[in-house]
Amino acid sequence: MSNSKHASTVGPDRPISLTAPTGIDRAAHHRLDEAWLAAAWSHPTTRVFVVSGGQVLIDDRPDGTTELVMTPAFEAPVTETHRYFLGTDAEGVSYFALQKDTLPGRMDQSARPAGLREAGLLLSDRDAGLMVHAVALENWQRLHRFCSRCGERTVIAAAGHIRRCQACGAEHYPRTDPAVIMLVTDDQDRALLGRQVHWPEGRFSTLAGFVEPGESIEQSVAREVFEEAGVTVGEVDYIASQPWPFPSSLMLGFFARATSSEINVDGEEIHEARWFSREDLTAGFESGEVLPPYGISIASRLIELWYGKPLPKPGDVV
Ligand SMILES: [Zn+2]
C-alpha cells in the first residue's frame, strides 16, 4: 500500500482534515511518571483546556483564525475532573485536557462551545490534534467504566490513557475501531458515489463501513462496496487515515478499482448510488441536483483527489 501516487495533490495548503502533523509529541513515557506530571502541571507555560461531552471552548479571533481556549494550569477548574496529559511541543510546553461534566463559563464573550465536526474545520492543526486526542480519550473513558474481565469498576490511570480494575488488576487501554472509506472508480474513471438513506436528496459521498473481526482491510473494502452497491472491486490503494472519535473509529481511506459496473444498492444503508464522471459532478453542482459533501470527513478529500480540484462548499456559486 502506498500513498505516493496521490501525495503531491494533497499539498500543505490543503491538508486532509485531522490528518496533518500537529507538532505535538505525545511523550507517552511520561504518562506513568507522577512526579514529572506534577511538575509539568505546575509549570507556568503549561496550557490546559476542558473537554465535556465531546465539546471544547473555541475563540474566533479578530484576524479570522479560531483558537482552542486554553488557560494556565493555575486558572483551570480542577475540582472533580479527570486529567489527560496530551503531550509537549517543540518549545517544551505541556498540554493537558480536563474532562468535566460541563464546560466552564467564560468572561471572554467571544469564546463558545463547539464539537469536533465544527471545530475540526476551524482550528489549527495543533489545536485540532489536541482536541481530537482529548475527545477520543473522553469517549473511551465514558464507555469503559467497568472491567470487561470481571465487571468491577475501573479507575483512570496513566494520565488518562489506561483504566485499571481495582478488583482483578486488569489494565484496559483505549481502543480504536478501524473503518474503511473508499472512492471506487471504474474503467472510464468514473466515481461511484452513494446516498445514505437518511441523507437529503442529492447528497452523495463515498461508501464506507466497519472492518469486521477476522477481516483484512482489503477484504473489508470489497465486502462493503459489494454489500452497499453490488459492485465488485479489485485493486485497492491506501490514501490516508483520519481519527474519527464518534465514538472510537479510525477511518482508513482508499481508492478502489471496480471490476463490475452494474449497481444494486442494498436499500438499507445506501438508498441510491451512481457512477459520476467529473463532468457529471460539475453539471450536478451547477444545476443544484448534486449537493457537495462538506465537513471534516476524509470523504471530501478523497473525492477532491479524484475530481482534481476543490469541491464547492455549500452556498458557493460553482
Ligand atoms: Zn477486573
UniProtKB/TrEMBL annotation:
PROSITE patterns, per the entry: NUDIX (PS51462)
Keywords (A to Z) from UniProt: Hydrolase, Magnesium, Metal-binding, NAD
SUPFAM superfamilies: Nudix (SSF55811)
A Pfam family this chain is assigned to: NUDIX-like
InterPro entries: NADH_PPase-like_N (IPR015375), NudC-like_C (IPR049734), NUDIX_hydrolase-like_dom_sf (IPR015797), NUDIX_hydrolase_dom (IPR000086), Znr_NADH_PPase (IPR015376)
Protein EC: 3.6.1.22
One GO MF term attached to the UniProt entry: hydrolase activity
Descriptive protein name: NAD(+) diphosphatase
Lineage: Bacteria, Bacillati, Actinomycetota, Actinomycetes, Kitasatosporales
